[in-house]
């Protein structure tokens, strides 16, 4: 039974949200935020151990369903939410000292941070496709006020765009869910079970293919807006650039994954119903387009957070492409890439956050010589950039290598496109980060010591994953890949 | 039985007409009133479906719709436009005829897209998915053509109405827990939109979103 672990997992962020709504203005709110995130992480570890040992399970009258695939995302989400809370403690204090944030804003930030974690965990663990939708929408609602936290004209514009675009996207996903229900109730009958994924999965062969085809298009476009797939991505760079850096880190590292998880749940059903590669082809198309467009946009960026936001679009495109190819190896590679991308990208945002605070601007041409002022921030940024660009021996290299070799084998025509896009991305990002790290500087030291433990902890994990894959983890990913087919 | 089908089809047609009316309505106050009327049509149609199919949980849905979409949300919006002092604002819409033509094209597209599904549906639900999809797409068009933040939000809520119509009339209602969740999300979203209106006005001195087109990739 997993009831206990699951209750702890969902209760700690809920309790955290309520406590911080009450005490978010106190001096120790940041510590409380980290403590509650740590409790969530501990519960996630307990849940993971249980599920990897005992296999997929349902809980609470089948309303929740945990298998190797979503428990992997639960563990990743809880871990990065915890490290981000560690990072945000000094980061937000420095922002307050610089006069960019006031205590009421921090109050809002802390309580919404916990509720956002809760929304993501519910979206990951829910068995009911309708509840997944509700939780995805809740995840938007909790972050939209965080994107506009600074109340600058640009941040308001970014938040409005985020709200409207994701609102429209998620509405289309709801239409897809309704169509799914329409097909399901003909097989499973009226009532509560017709939207439960485990029940749908059992009868997926009997679901009406024409309806499911249409439903998947709506679900992919809807949740794809959240993933940041081109051409639905235009909210993403704005929201990442204008929001506070911890929010950029969790949006990029976690929310995009959660949306992709919802798409994969739908894909399993559609594949079972259609028996063709229709869903996979769509995902490959969107994925490839995202990789190419994002790579082309990378070199034109002037704002450092915007540039790394485009890099997220590129990597999510690559993951979507790999899931679309399907098969055990590609799915394994996609899962690995999800892990290493989330870890690396959030580490980069941590380092970028401190670099921006030191330089006082997000414009890359004015951020110079980070190594001089702070070797740890400089090296964190440099190593993170190496990792995200897929340099060996980091884990991103391993997953990208697997994806590209599989593509070469199954869909040879995509290989040159992918390689050229990755090459352009490499040149763009490396060329811009290099002068930021080296060179002369005018930046000022910070009033609080920066939190760099999370940066190096993430990068170390990515390095380990690149050098040596522990058998436990490899076995776990293999089981998850087998579930997704 | 055939009377109820006729009646629901009539309501569906009214729903679509209201969306077209919203698309061409310049006054913000009338726009909100149209939205309330749309909610009322939804309530009636949900009630009729509940009565004719004997689905008890649809009575709760109908009550929820009446409460949320006819009473609470229009009241909130009225309060907002009074506080923001934009009650009598008139929007300059360019090219209403073109918008209407695009709208008609969207309706035809929606019916074509939904055609294979409509053939599967039996009795009461035939053809309704097409209408629901059409009203979703028309609301989307409205969000695209509007330049005022409030009209965009009304478009967003109208889109949600279209979805709700698909859920109740075409599939006899989603499970109640899902409907409650969706209703809660919509309510919270409206509150957040309200907060945004004040923030936007404070920053830009107007609710015109043409001020908010600065973020671009150059």
Choose one word for the global shape of chain B: globular
Spatial arrangement of strands, main beta sheet of chain A: 1-2
Helix content of chain A: over 70%
Low-confidence stretches of chain B: none
How many helices of chain B does DSSP assign? 7
The overall pLDDT of chain B, averaged over residues, is 87
Beta-strand content of chain A: under 5%
Q: Provide the β-strand percentage band of chain B.
A: under 5%
The string of secondary-structure elements of chain A, in order, is: HHEEHHHHHHHHHHHHHHHHH
- Report the total helices of chain A: 19
Order of helices and strands of chain B: HHHHHHH
**Secondary structure tally: strands of chain B:** 0
The tally of strands of chain A reads 2
Q: What's the story with the biggest beta sheet of chain A?
A: 2 strands, antiparallel
What integer value in Å does the Rg of chain B equal?
Answer: 18 Å
Summarize the structure.
The complex is a heterodimer of chains A (485) and B (218). Chain A is mainly α.
Features:
heterodimer, A: 485 residues, mainly alpha, two-stranded antiparallel ribbon, 19 helices, 2 strands, globular, B: 218 residues, 7 helices
Description of the molecule:
The complex is a heterodimer of chains A (485) and B (218). Chain A has a two-stranded antiparallel sheet with strand order 1-2. Helix content of chain A is 78%, strand content 1%. Chain A has helices at residues 3-23, 29-54, 68-97, 103-125, 129-147, 153-188, 197-202, 209-227, 235-242, 245-274, 278-298, 304-325, 328-359, 370-373, 375-388, 395-410, 414-437, 453-467, 471-484, and strands at residues 57-59, 64-66. The radius of gyration of chain A is 21 Å and the shape is globular. By secondary structure, chain A is mainly alpha-helical. In chain A, β1 and β2 form a beta hairpin. Chain B has 218 residues and is mainly alpha-helical. In chain B, 78% of the residues lie in helices and 0% in strands. The termini of chain B are far apart. Chain B has helices at residues 2-24, 28-53, 57-83, 96-120, 128-145, 149-170, 176-204. Chain B has one domain (2-212). Chain B contains 7 helices and no strands. The mean pLDDT of chain B is 87. At the A-B interface, α5, α6, α8 and α9 of A face α4, α5, α6 and α7 of B.
């Amino acid at each position: 039974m997993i009831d206990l672990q699951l209750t702890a997992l969902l209760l700690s962020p809920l309790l955290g949200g309520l406590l911080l709504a009450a005490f978010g203005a106190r001096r120790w709110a940041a510590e409380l935020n980290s403590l509650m995130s740590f409790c969530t992480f501990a519960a996630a570890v307990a849940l993971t151990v249980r599920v990897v040992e005992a296999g997929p399970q349902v809980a609470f009258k089948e309303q929740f369903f945990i298998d190797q695939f979503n428990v992997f995302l639960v563990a990743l989400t809880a871990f990065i939410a915890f490290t981000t809370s560690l990072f945000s403690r000094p980061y937000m204090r420095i922002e307050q000292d610089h006069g960019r944030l006031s205590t009421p804003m921090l109050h809002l930030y802390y309580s919404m941070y916990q509720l956002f974690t809760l929304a993501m965990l519910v979206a990951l663990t829910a068995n009911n496709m309708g509840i997944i939708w509700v939780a995805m929408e809740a995840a938007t609602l909790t972050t939209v006020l965080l994107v506009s936290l600074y109340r600058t004209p640009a941040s308001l514009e970014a938040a409005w765009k985020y709200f409207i675009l994701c609102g429209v996207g998620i509405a289309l996903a709801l239409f897809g869910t309704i169509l799914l229900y329409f097909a399901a109730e003909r097989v499973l009958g009226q009532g509560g079970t017709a939207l439960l994924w485990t029940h749908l999965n059992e009868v997926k062969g009997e679901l009406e293919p024409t309806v499911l085809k249409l439903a998947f298009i709506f679900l992919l476009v809807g949740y794809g807006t959240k993933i940041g797939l081109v051409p639905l991505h235009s909210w993403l760079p704005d929201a990442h650039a204008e929001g506070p850096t911890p929010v950029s880190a969790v949006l990029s590292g976690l929310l995009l994954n959660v949306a992709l998880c919802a798409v994969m749940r739908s894909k399993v059903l559609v594949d079972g119903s259609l028996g063709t590669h229709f869903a996979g082809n769509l995902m490959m198309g969107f994925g490839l387009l995202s990789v190419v467009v994002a790579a082309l946009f990378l070199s034109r960026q002037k704002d450092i957070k915007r540039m790394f936001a485009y890099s997220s679009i590129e990597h999510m495109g690559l993951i979507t492409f790999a899931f679309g190819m399907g098969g055990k190896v590609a799915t394994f590679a996609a899962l690995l890439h999800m892990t290493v991308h989330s870890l690396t990208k959030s580490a980069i945002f941590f380092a970028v956050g401190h670099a921006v605070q030191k330089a006082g601007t997000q414009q890359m041409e004015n951020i110079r010589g980070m190594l001089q002022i702070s070797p740890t921030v400089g090296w964190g940024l440099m190593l993170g950039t190496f990792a995200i660009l897929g340099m060996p021996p980091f884990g991103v290299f391993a997953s990208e290598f697997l994806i590209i070799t599989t593509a070469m084998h199954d869909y040879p025509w995509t290989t040159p496109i992918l390689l050229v896009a990755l090459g352009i991305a490499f040149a763009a990002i490396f060329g811009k980060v290099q002068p930021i790290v080296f060179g002369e500087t005018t930046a000022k030291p910070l009033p609080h010591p920066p939190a760099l433990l999370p940066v190096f902890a993430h990068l170390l994990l990515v390095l380990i994953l690149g050098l040596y894959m522990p058998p436990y983890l490899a076995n776990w990913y293999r089981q998850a890949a087998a579930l997704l087919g | 039985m055939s009377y109820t089908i006729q009646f629901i089809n009539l309501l569906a047609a009214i729903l679509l007409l209201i969306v077209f009316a919203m698309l061409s309505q310049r006054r913000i106050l009338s726009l909100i009133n149209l939205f309330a009327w749309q909610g009322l049509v939804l309530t009636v149609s949900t009630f009729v479906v509940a009565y004719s199919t004997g689905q008890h949980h649809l009575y709760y849905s109908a009550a929820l719709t009446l409460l949320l979409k006819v009473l609470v949300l229009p009241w909130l919006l009225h309060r907002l436009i009074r506080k923001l002092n934009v009650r009598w604002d008139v929007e300059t819409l360019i090219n209403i005829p073109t918008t209407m033509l695009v709208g008609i094209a969207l309706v035809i597209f929606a019916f074509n897209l939904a055609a294979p599904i409509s053939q599967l549906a039996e009795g009461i639900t035939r053809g309704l998915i097409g209408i629901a999809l059409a009203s979703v797409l028309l609301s989307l068009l409205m969000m695209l053509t509007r330049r005022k933040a409030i009209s965009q939000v009304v478009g967003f809520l109208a889109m949600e109405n279209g979805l709700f119509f698909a859920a109740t009339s075409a599939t006899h209602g989603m499970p109640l827990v899902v409907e409650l969740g969706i209703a809660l999300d919509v309510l919270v979203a409206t509150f957040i939109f309200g907060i945004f209106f004040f923030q936007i006005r404070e920053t830009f001195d107007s609710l015109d979103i043409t001020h908010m087109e600065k973020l671009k990739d150059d």
